[in-house]
Specification:
It contains 13 helices and no strands. It has helices spanning about 5-10, 15-20, 65-75, 80-85, 90-120, 120-130, 130-170, 175-185, 190-195, 195-205, 210-220, 220-230, 240-270. The protein is globular, with a radius of gyration of 21 Å.
Length: about 270
């Protein structure tokens, strides 16, 4: 394994970096931008093994809240650069990130939806809150909805990554199942940054212009990220790349629709029973 001084000397030549297992594109751990002039020094973004970690969530030394938003920003605002160099690694931190990100996103959507439903008739909402039976219904609906949709989204992202790997193998590429699963799980960062909570955090931390820009960034984001991932990790080009990407999207969408219908049925049961 190359030492830290060696990493500084070789530069960003792809053939050399491949030989020392360091990603060709490194995303800044603090701002999530690939062209950052240097928010952190190399020593702060390099693991003890000497390998540069491009996933802020997996770096020690910062709070979980900070790492959550740094990773969400990197997976959304710098998605092509982040995912084309996503290295293999443990699935546990990626799974934990997906669960936390989706839970935060789903809860923020649930609160926004609840506010919009209450707004036209606040007196009805107050009567529900004052009634013990109404309170139980609201609690059941909230728990079933948030936990159910969180589970659907996390599983959907995991299946999405696995389906991309299957599509790439069909196109003749070598399997990278571990990286594909991590890709799907870390893609949950899209849902967090484009949620109401993500908008508020961007508004407070970066200003109205950055918050409004999330709408533009989210357009076509899954396609851009998947294209970069399939090119960077699987070395695929069209037409195989398009077939692999479409396969992953079709499987993920199909599973998500089935899961969403199941959760909606549980929500109806929570209200009726």
């Amino acid at each position: 394994m190359a030492s830290r001084p060696a990493l500084r000397q070789v530069g960003y030549h792809e053939d050399v970096l491949d030989s020392v297992e360091v990603p060709a594109a490194v995303v800044c751990a603090r701002c999530g931008k690939p062209d950052c002039p240097g928010c952190e020094s190399l020593d702060e973004t390099t693991l003890p093994s000497g390998i540069i970690s491009i996933v802020p969530w997996e770096r020690p030394g910062q709070s979980a809240w900070v790492k959550l938003w740094l990773t969400a920003r990197a997976t959304t605002r710098s998605a092509p650069q982040f995912f084309q160099s996503l290295p293999p690694g443990d699935h546990a931190p990626a799974f934990l990130f997906a669960v936390v990100a989706e839970l935060c996103a789903v809860v923020s959507w649930a609160l926004l939806l609840g506010f919009l439903l209450v707004l036209p008739a606040p007196d009805v909402a107050l009567r529900w809150l004052a009634d013990p039976h109404g309170q139980m219904i609201l609690i059941r609906v909230f728990l079933v909805g948030t936990l159910g949709f969180t589970a659907v989204l996390v599983v959907g992202h995991a299946v999405y990554g696995t389906a991309l790997d299957a599509g790439a193998r069909r196109a003749g590429a070598r399997s990278h199942a571990s990286q594909a699963l991590r890709y799907g799980l870390y893609a949950a960062g899209w849902d967090l940054l484009t949620s109401p909570l993500g908008f508020i955090v961007a508004l407070v931390g970066e200003g109205p212009r950055a918050a409004a820009g999330l709408v533009t960034v989210s357009m076509g984001l899954p396609g851009r990220a998947a294209t970069a991932f399939l090119r960077g990790v699987y070395r695929l080009e069209d037409p195989g790349l398009t077939r692999a990407r479409n396969h992953g999207t079709a499987v993920a969408v199909g599973l998500s629709v089935v899961g969403a219908v199941a959760v909606l049925a549980l929500l109806v049961a929570a209200v009726v029973l």
